[in-house]
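Submission sheet (multi-component)
Chains listed below:
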Amino acid sequence: MQNLQSEICRSLEILDGTGKFHEDSWQRPEGGGGRSRILRDGTVFEQGGVNFSEVWGSHLPPSILTQRPEAAGHKFYATGVSLVLHPRNPYVPTVHLNYRYFEAGPVWWFGGGIDLTPYYPFTEDAVHFHSTLKQACDVHHPDYYQVFKPWCDEYFYLKHRQENRGIGGIFFDYQDGKGQLYRGKNSDSPAAVVSNQIGTPTPRTWEEICAFVHTCGEAFTAAYLPIVERRKLTEYGEHQRNFQLYRRGRYVEFNLVYDRGTLFGLQTNGRTESILMSLPPLVRWEYGYQPEANTPEAQLYETFLKPQDWVSLAVSSK
Amino acid sequence: MVQLLENNTEKQQTIGTRVEKVLRDMFDNISHALEDIDGTQLQEQNWTRDEKGQWMQGESNNGMIYVDKALRKGNVFEKVGLNYVSMQGQLPPGMTFQGSDVVMADSANKEAKETSTSFFATSTSVVINANNPMVPTAHVNYRYFQIGDGTQPGSWWFGGGGDLTPIYLFEEDAVHFHQLHKQACDKHNPEYYPRFKKWCDEYFYLPHRGESRGVGGLFFDNLQDENVETLFGFLKTCSEAFIPAYMPIVDQRNDIEFTEHNKYWQRRRRGRYAEFILLHDRGVRFGLDSGIVNTQSVLNCMPGEAFWNYSDEPVSDSPEAKLVEVLRNPREWV
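Outcome: structure written.
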């Protein structure tokens, strides 16, 4: 996890050109600590953070125990890397990545994922992002992508807006190599349905799941950086900037209303600055904004903020 | 989203109708005061339900009144949101009230599951964000809930309050705001102000920041421990206290010159406000979860612009540090 943080920061500094990450190490009074790296006012990135943390304690918070009651009464250990980048140019999408590992008494599991939040709709970017993630998944298991992709759509959903946060990516949790792949709360969601059809895969070891998470972490640069390269010099005006700032409001809403990682962090007396590092810099809210028909903004809402099978789109366009 | 069915039965010509009138007057009076100060007309939006029960723009019907007003980028105000609602309906089967929260009825309780609960609710809520960082943000909300005809013990209650969120602290503004609210309380009961002032400090608190949202004011919820007439009278006085408690502060601070640095600090404080609304505000969480009103209305209280930055504590002895000090150690202002 620490190496992943370092590798990612190095590649982002090279891409940004001027922005540098500043490191801030911290200790958690109840046990553990972390290393936050923040980049501000870069050429490409307006604000971004890559956080590594490793915490332990005597009991897990309620947000986790409701999902894993067998971990109750045990000490826990949790480590993870999380990253959010808020680019300056509205044509460059925001990206989020998080991979984590938990251990509590007899149980352990891996979780995490990566997802993309564009402000302007580019089909080729969505196809590239998803194809890269599918390849990473396929190296380890032929069924991973087809469950973890719809699980991501399910997780990064703003119920009160009836919108997905972005075009998704992959998301998984409670992966311990046993049982079905989908371990979420809904029994009839698309991810649950596919997972049921697959049934219970052959058990996988700790090393195998760990290797899968490692591949996913390494896929970040290949999935995201080419999109940044392609869009970072696109000219934009005040109109595009306003739309970006408005859409960033949704990011804030998701993280504070729904995101389990954020709520877990705040409940475990985690370090507020590091947890809320994911929030964007400048954000705007408007009352009753509606995109005009037949604009790129409307296309974002109509197509990109709803689940799409991006990988098949790639196959059919070839 | 939960579907709520409004019915056509006559609204009670009793306490509900009278609270409704008081809250509507408050809504109209605050709207006019804001329009006068800003010199801009508020944008008005009425809501109704379509055949499927989805909210759509249009004149309210079935005895339901549901209006939002909003202002963005005004002369004085950056963003203002007002909501007024008065509705009578049925909670869906399986849902009931517990205290002032709507909850799913105990699944073992078959009877509660099969009968839907009729309710009446009326509320006015207002959040005012000004352009000038020297002008504090203000929030005021008063509401009344009733289950059935309100004759059963514990089947009605009042809630609400008003609170002030300075970006830069002017102590005399906090004192003025609290004094006017104390006067309103004291007309009814000398124990109200200390009780509701403390409740306000406890409620508008961000535990993850170790800060109060602002300098407080009044807050109460699930108030039903006295005669309904007594509490109605109290609510009416409170609803009339907001304009004289807040508008003079706007007039007084609006012409102070400010810098880009002041503006930046304002945006960062707006970020805290957004954090409170989305993480902690029970009314907002309830609104988003229940679908009783629509999202656009619920989030009418969001600030216009906010900014998040990885830790940058204010310089010690600066005006910014002075504010944070007060937010970490709530004071008695009166």
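Remark: The domain at 5-328 of chain B is CATH 3.40.1500.10 (oxygen-dependent coproporphyrinogen oxidase).
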